[in-house]
Write a structure and sequence with these properties.
alpha/beta; 6-stranded mixed sheet; 4-stranded antiparallel sheet; 21 helices; 10 strands
């Protein structure tokens, strides 16, 4: 693992260290207890063997046994308490990790949310299912620290053997003390060999895990589709089951092949570990036996020292294996650090918005051009436009002409590539963004209604003013539907989390989104295809009640249905990212141009 990998791990745990120090403290203490406790039995066994060999009394043997069992019991109790505390913390680590990530998602520049690479990055971070990346990393670190504690304990038990053996051998056993040094060198060589081989196999396993990551991400996406009843409608009607089954088989085949590759390297790693442990154990027992035969150590010392060496080797193997997991996690930890470190490219203004009693604001698009990040194609090119908020405006045009992008720029979801947008003569990038957003109530074409109570959906929050919410629902055309709801504003939308929830139709959901825009009571109401999901009767109802719906506020319609244009005082005709016509319906209807072409194509439906 490189220094960068360790920095990513530290950064991943940074939020945890700041707010949940008890988790790390419990992990360290648990590792010490888990790594130390086995040596009580090892040392006790050696002492009992020596006591039996020396012919100690039953009372003395029982005293040794009681001391050992008591020590093991106390450490086991402490270890059990720490394990319960640590595991309980890991259970909700998913929520702990999700909190800063969700805050980042809600505050990051909007352009990142439409970036496929950023979307895939977050999915990779969240790929561990019920356990978070943080929980997995803490669990692995706990095992590595336990192995490290075992290595230290074995070192403190075994080193005196080599020192004593070296001192005694220099006095005559086998003629030289070099034998003990030679054994020590051989053992260290075997440990290093195992460690290096373990690193090699761990890297292969980590590479295989990365290779499998994309398939797992895609599999998660498909499972989300299959678990949602709304998406299942298209799946069944369009007979797409075969398509998904084919894709699942492909993913299954890829995952199986990668898993076999991982299993191959894991088996080689285990074989290497076991082989080295066997050779080391043989050499250690032979050496300890020779020392015992020479009277340098006791019979019990053979058991203690040999068992310690074997635990030492086992700990090295476990540490190597866990480091492979940690190495694999480093890639995802790097994704986490990169995700959380995405820079804010949007300029943060500080100027407060002007508070106008009449709700009128002048808006100017001054030589505005825009292309989406990563694209070389301009969606809007050198747009010059002025209008005064406080009127009715329609925006029409063919698909891809720049209508929705125009709204995104006005709402400052994106900043312009060239030129500037001014409100009351000031570049909108200089305004405080939160205050600027309060100007707009928007119903986008891909609006969202959430599985919350109806009132919270309308109020976009938990504090719901009942009279105001009911008025918004009535003005949006949902008054009759609302009157039939037993729980009123407390009615849960959909049955995803409440069996008694109500499943609203697509048109009703769109009216709820419109009611949310009305409830906000912003001076500027924008509706992107506001009647797309409505039947003709409901569409007529919306248009007829348009003035009542928005009151004295500005309203901008984006629509393919030119019937809405007859209610508007100003019509902008977009084509190729520019406004090619502007005027009232009566004027544009009789002009040669795109508006008349579109109107003639739809006129038969309005008679």
């Amino acid at each position: 693992m490189s220094r960068k990998d360790w920095k990513n791990i530290v950064a991943l745990l940074g939020n945890l260290v700041q707010k949940h120090k008890d988790v790390l403290i419990s992990m360290v203490c648990l590792s010490i207890f888990m790594g130390t406790r086995p040596f009580i039995a090892v040392i006790l066994t050696g002492m009992l063997v020596d006591a039996v060999y020396a012919g100690e009394s039953i009372g003395e043997l029982l005293r040794y046994a009681a001391m050992g069992v008591g020590g093991i019991f106390l450490m086991s109790v402490m270890e059990g308490i720490l394990t319960m505390f640590f595991n309980r913390k890991l259970e909700y680590m998913q929520e702990i990790q999700a909190q800063p990530m969700n805050q980042k998602s809600m505050s990051m520049d909007y352009e990142y949310l439409e970036d496929v690479g950023i979307h895939e990055m977050r999915q990779r971070i969240e790929k561990f299912g019920g356990w978070s990346l943080t929980a997995i990393t803490l669990s692995v670190l706990n095992k590595i620290m336990t192995a490290a504690t075992t290595v230290l304990m074995a070192f403190f038990v075994v080193v005196p053997m080599f020192i004593r053996g070296s001192h005694s051998l220099s006095e005559g056993f086998m003629g030289s003390w070099l034998m003990s040094i030679l054994l020590f060198v051989v053992v260290i060589f075997l440990v290093i060999t195992e460690f290096q081989m373990g690193r090699y196999f761990s890297k292969k396993v980590a590479d295989a895990r990365k290779e499998m990551s994309n398939d797992e991400t895609r599999n998660k996406y498909y499972l989300e589709i299959l678990s949602g009843y709304e998406k299942q409608k298209d799946l069944r009607i369009c007979k797409q089951q075969n398509l998904y089954e084919k894709e699942f088989r492909r993913i299954e085949s890829n995952v199986k092949r990668t898993m076999n590759k991982m299993a191959h390297y894991i088996m080689l790693d285990i074989f290497t570990e076991q082989s080295v442990s066997a050779v080391t154990g043989f050499l250690v027992y032979v050496f300890a036996g020779l020392l015992a035969c020479a009277g340098i150590i006791s019979i019990g010392g053979v058991v203690t020292y040999a068992a310690s060496i074997l635990k030492f080797m086992d700990a090295i193997g476990r540490a190597t294996y866990q480091l492979s997991w940690l190495s694999g996690n480093c890639a995802f930890a790097g994704d986490y650090v990169k995700y959380m470190g995405l820079p804010q490219r949007k300029h943060e203004g500080t100027i407060p918005m002007e508070k106008r009693q009449d709700g009128k604001f002048s808006v100017e698009f001054d030589h505005v051009s825009f292309k989406y990040p990563g694209s070389e194609t301009y969606v809007i090119k050198d747009l010059n436009l002025k209008f005064v908020i406080g009127e009715r405006m329609a925006i029409v045009g063919r698909n891809g002409s720049g209508k929705t992008t125009f709204i995104k720029l006005l709402c400052r979801l994106y900043d312009v590539t060239e030129g500037c947008i001014k409100v009351n003569g000031i570049d909108i990038r200089k305004y405080d963004y939160t205050e600027y957003c309060q100007l707009f109530s928007v119903v986008f074409q891909d609006f969202q209604v959430f599985a919350f109570p109806l009132g919270e959906n309308v109020a976009a929050g938990t504090k719901v003013e009942e009279e105001r919410a009911v008025d918004a629902l009535n003005r949006a055309g949902l008054g009759e539907c609302y009157g039939n709801l037993e729980k009123g504003l407390s009615t849960n939308i959909s049955k995803e989390f409440d069996d008694k929830g109500v499943t609203f139709s697509g048109g009703e959901k769109q009216k709820i989104a419109i009611a949310r825009a009305i409830y906000k009571n912003a001076p500027f109401v924008i509706m992107d295809e506001p009647t797309a999901a409505l039947d003709p009767e409901s569409e007529c109802e919306v248009y007829a009640g348009f003035d009542k719906m928005v009151g004295n506020k500005t309203a901008i319609y984006i629509s393919h249905r030119l019937a809405s244009c007859r209610f508007c005082e100003d019509i902008l005709v977009f084509d190729g990212g520019d406004v090619i016509q502007r005027g009232k319906h009566e004027e544009l209807e009789h002009q040669e141009g795109l508006y008349r072409e579109l109107w003639d194509a739809q006129a038969q439906y309005y008679t």
